[in-house]
């Protein structure tokens, strides 16, 4: 994506923070969110202290002051606590608000960089820890591949609405899977290199590769 293209995208749409685009929540939803966050923070704290394998769901539940059954109700697997976040609804809302004539790749580029910027600014340590675990723990990397299927389905339906294609359109599914695959590989690459690179620039470059192909 050229500097002119990025500038045009920025000027056509104001700076958006995913926190500001979260759908309104009632009391019950806010309580659920508070519980999810408490479980996730307890998990990261325990993992930092004793490692991933040594951290049990029972320990997480005790640290978060909930029951083990509550942990499993919110997160079906321990890996899900590390991998999930609360921003999918906001990302979907931002995607649907993008200009109608914007190419799908640029729309996804916008929401992905918005999300990454938010994580780097507000949840930097958790992002580092999550990425390190993705690199070091095979079970987390495997589970990430599974959970990305759910994210892909969400994005496919939103892009189908924007493009007029059917939700089961194979080209749309391949395109979305390729973008998410690029995000996964860039994130792992960033972690393998000790987090020394600019993650947003890496993602931007990966999407440019998808757009223009691999130059020989």
TrEMBL record:
Transmembrane segments: none annotated. Residues 1-24 are annotated as: Disordered. The keyword DNA-binding applies. Keywords: DNA-binding, Transcription, Transcription regulation. Pfam families: TetR_C_14, TetR_N. Gene3D superfamilies: Homeodomain-like, Tetracycline Repressor, domain 2. The keyword DNA-binding applies. Residues 33-93 form the HTH tetR-type domain. Residues 56-75 bind DNA. This is TetR family transcriptional regulator. It comes from Streptomyces sannanensis.
